[in-house]
Amino acid sequence: MASRYAFSIDLDRCIGCQACVVACRTGNEVASGDAYITVSEEIRRKDNGFWGSFAHKRCFHCTEAPCVEVCPTGTLTKVNGLTAVDMAKCSACGYCTQACPFHIPHVVDNHVSKCVGCLDQVQAGEEPWCARTCPSNAIRFGEREVILAEAKAKVAKLRERYPNAQVYGETQLGGLGLLMVLLEAPGVYGLPEAPQSSATIQTWKTLVKPASAGLTALAAGVMGLAFVFARRQHAKEHAEVHTAAPVEAAVVETPAQTEENHD
């Protein structure tokens, strides 16, 4: 059975240092001005004071990934629980951007850009850049079952201080490949309580994709017929050339024959 990997981010341990952002950008050679991870500070008024935490925005590696479902070129695929990207196949259509309930994939330099879970590093037996760099051990990576068990155990302890603490991502969209240990409700972090496929993906699945497949099949059929007709025409012309009557040879008179004819 293939491994199913996942990340977890413990927002009780996160110190907002941005080390994961820098390591990710450097290790993955992310284009200037772009980023796979962003970390922002969330401050809310609570009781008679203020409460603060950090929010991470990055790919959630959904099991039932809307971006994968709508991708018409096979650029986005699932590999060991991670949502991988083959940039060479990307047509920059933007369907993934519209379909993602977290608004994560985006188009940069005519191709989709997002976290790919450092899949090449993982397949080489290494940890993703963000996990290996985090100084407070807030980011973890490994087999999803193990990561999920750790996150649940942490939440059980946190609820003594944070009654609303919870694991985000256990079941959403088939189970996310990024589990978050939240201290408050998802909405506080700008996360949807129950992320769903957008209307875009429903339209794609019921109308656009079948129509696209039909048009592709029709185009292939037309091209096939055109090829058959072209071959037949070529064969006909070839036969006509080889069966045509031979051209009569020109008669060339010698000087002597010319004089005789004049006499």
Q: Can you describe what's shown?
A:
The longest helix is centred in the C-terminal third of the chain and has 45 residues, at 199-243. The protein is an alpha+beta fold and 263 residues long. The radius of gyration is 32 Å and the shape is globular. The strands form four sheets. It has a four-stranded mixed beta sheet. The protein has helices at residues 19-27, 66-70, 95-99, 119-123, 129-133, 144-158, 199-243, 255-262, and strands spanning 5-10, 38-46, 49-57, 76-79, 82-85, 106-108, 111-113, 139-143, 166-168, 178-182. Strand 6 and strand 7 form a beta hairpin. It folds into two domains: 5-196, Alpha-Beta Plaits; 198-240.
Label this structure with key terms.
single chain; 263 residues; alpha+beta; Alpha-Beta Plaits; 2 domains; four-stranded mixed sheet; two-stranded antiparallel ribbon; 8 helices; 10 strands; 37% helix; 19% strand
SSE inventory with pairings:
Layout: E1 5-10, H1 19-27, E2 38-46, E3 49-57, H2 66-70, E4 76-79, E5 82-85, H3 95-99, E6 106-108, E7 111-113, H4 119-123, H5 129-133, E8 139-143, H6 144-158, E9 166-168, E10 178-182, H7 199-243, H8 255-262
Parallel strand pairs: 1-10
Antiparallel strand pairs: 1-8, 2-3, 4-5, 6-7, 9-10
